[in-house]
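Input/output pair, single chain:
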Amino acid sequence: MSDTLDRPVVIFGTGELAQLAHFYFTHDSARQVAGFTVDAEYIESPEYLGLPLVPSESLEESFSPREYDLFIAIGYKDLNRFRAERCEEKKARGYKLASYISSRASIWSDLEIGDNCMIMEGNVIQPFAKIGHGVIMFCNSIVSHHVELGDYCFIGSEATISGGVKIGANSFVGVNATIREHLSIGRDCIIGAGTLILKDTTDNSSYLEPGTQDSGIPSRRMRSLL
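Output:
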């Protein structure tokens, strides 16, 4: 996380997550959003949400890393790898990456959290939890005591991660998923919406609960194709 928590921030992205980041930083942090950036091929206007929109390739010309921090507003595209790549690229260019924790989240002072995280409202994070770099948590999830979330995980709303669980990097946990206590979830895993996990999982695996349109079909495990 940036050493200076009130430095202005530039947001990478122009999608829904970028809009959310702009709202949260503007209304619920000490930071000012100074502008947006995306790759030049995706720029159709010099402004976005009334702020400058500049090419990522020449970002330093408008927003120097000596004065501005970045937030990479990319979701779980390519199982979170795209967000991870952009974060590492920008850090290599000298930028510090900002994190946002909602004032409406319940956390404790001992929380260890990395760069470029977004913890939205209603989340409960108990003592002794550790959150890696680039983790996104949507609303109203529970991260219990001694949980470790690896770098660039994505946690959907209303997920329950019980005490002592360790989740590997780049993994996705869907809406209303539940993970039993003291399990290890591998890297690059997909835990689908509504899925109950009762055993350790291997790397690169998916666990999916069929939707209501498939009522009567039991839960199934799939190898990840991502």
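DSSP finds three helices and 23 strands in the chain. The radius of gyration is 18 Å.
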